[in-house]
Design brief:
By secondary structure, this protein is of the alpha/beta class. The protein is built from 9 helices and 18 strands. InterPro entries: Peptidyl-Arg-deiminase_porph.
Length: 345
């Protein structure tokens, strides 16, 4: 995978949906920042100047090198940087950040400030490469690429009428090929997680580990309501072929015990597919479950040259996302190194 400058995060606000869990989610994100900054920079959009000052001191106390912490004041509605953050491409040898429309997963939630966040960060000088606005609705979690011309996505999300109803499958595929320079789009027709607000983002279900390898969620419990759709997805993945005609090496990820919201009892979308690849490491969500160790072992085998770093995401799934959903990687050459503690406001 391409070398990275940084991982972008959006810090939770006390006025957001995270309010009842604020201390817990902040602790999780602190653990993420400490882990990521062992390998590279972080860029964090914070809600106000006071939070910026607090986080600069907090991370200094936690031993994070000041040179690896980049803080920018830019308000947001929520924390899901994967979906409101920019998507990087290389065009004619130059990096470009693509800024798509974010509508809160088809209008489910307020997203006006989230949608403006990338442009705000660009105006503040956070990025070292151009930001290009597109008027199509697209979230980063809806797509996954192998870096060699193939893109993986789901019909349930990209063909959902709550995204771009004016575009049919052929038009969506043409757009993806034009914008990302890919030659092939692989569609999954099956797979979902209860409690997922994204209409089956592929980053909750199946991910490229390298151009020949896909890790995916497998449900082994035939009594679980997820079993039919995930079994059908497994059949689809086995039928997919690489550009050279060979089948993919498939890495099944285990199925954790069901997680339920302690307040109203609805099921939460715990998934090990929501891992984050960074320079020399893979951060993996864990849930205090017996399956955690098997998931870590499976991904260690899929990424033998990277450290495997578990991150407790029990608090994250309370708001229906996980580790990868909270993050957006910025490739080498895309971060403005001047955007350090307090320099961007």
């Amino acid at each position: 995978m391409a070398p990275q400058d940084a991982v972008q995060l959006t810090w939770p606000s006390p006025t957001s949906d995270w309010a009842p869990l604020l201390e817990r989610i902040e602790a999780t994100m602190e653990a993420m920042v400490v882990a990521i900054t062992r390998y590279q920079n972080v860029l964090i959009a914070v809600p106000d100047a006071a939070t910026r000052v607090h986080l600069a001191q907090r991370f200094a106390n936690l031993g994070v090198a000041a040179a690896r912490l980049h803080l920018a004041v830019a308000e947001a509605d929520d924390t899901w940087a994967r979906d409101h953050g920019p998507i990087a491409i290389e065009r004619d040898g130059d990096l470009v950040l693509l800024d798509y429309v974010f509508t809160g997963w088809g209008g489910k939630f307020e997203a006006g400030r989230d949608n403006a966040l990338t442009r705000k960060l660009a105006d503040l000088g956070a990025y070292a490469c151009p930001v290009e606005s597109h008027d199509i609705v697209l979230e980063g979690g809806a797509i996954d690429t192998d870096g060699e011309g193939t893109l993986l996505t789901t019909e349930a999300c990209l063909l959902n009428p709550n995204r771009n109803p004016q575009l049919d499958r052929e038009a969506v595929e043409a757009l993806l090929k034009a914008d990302f320079g890919v030659e092939r789009v692989l569609w999954l027709a099956n797979g979902h997680l209860e409690g997922d607000d994204t209409d089956s983002h592929v980053d909750t279900l199946a991910r490229f580990c390298d151009p020949a390898t896909i890790a995916y969620v497998r449900c082994d419990d035939e009594a679980d309501p997820h079993y039919p759709a995930l079994a059908a997805m497994e059949v689809e993945l086995k039928a997919l072929r690489r550009a050279d005609g060979e089948p993919y090496r498939l890495v099944p990820l285990p199925w954790p015990r069901p997680c339920f919201d302690p307040v109203d009892g609805h099921r939460l979308p715990a998934t090990y597919a929501n891992f984050l690849i960074v320079n020399s490491a893979v951060l993996v969500p864990v849930y205090g479950d017996a399956a955690d160790s098997r998931a870590l072992a499976a991904l260690a085998a899929a990424f033998p040259d990277r450290d495997i770093v578990p991150i407790d995401c029990l608090s994250v799934i309370r708001q229906h996302g996980s580790l990868h959903c909270l993050t957006m990687q910025l490739p080498r050459g895309s971060l403005n190194a001047a955007t350090q503690q307090g320099e961007t406001s």
